[in-house]
């Protein structure tokens, strides 16, 4: 004997491999969802910009604070208290600035 020990595969190793495969599968699906969410946010920002431009053309305020409040409530009702933070981030992203592109860089 050379003093080396060799590990043999055990049930725990099989569980670990299946757990790793499951994690990889779940993360892949999360990545797909992240792409879809980013695409939806981009579309939402474009639509929001069109609404803002139309409101300004009618000499109305660029923002509708009542609507923004309803958006915050909708996110909170679906996602709980942290939904308000997400709604605020979405509104800020989509609110943009009329003189600036939404994409920087």
TrEMBL record:
Residues 17-105 form the Chorismate mutase domain. It comes from the Bacteria. Gene3D superfamilies: Chorismate mutase. GO terms for biological process: chorismate metabolic process. GO terms for molecular function: chorismate mutase activity. InterPro entries: Chorismate_II_sf, CM_dom_sf, CM_II_prokaryot. PROSITE patterns: CHORISMATE_MUT_2. This is Chorismate mutase. It comes from Streptomyces paromomycinus (Streptomyces rimosus subsp. paromomycinus). The lineage of its organism: Bacteria, Bacillati, Actinomycetota, Actinomycetes, Kitasatosporales.
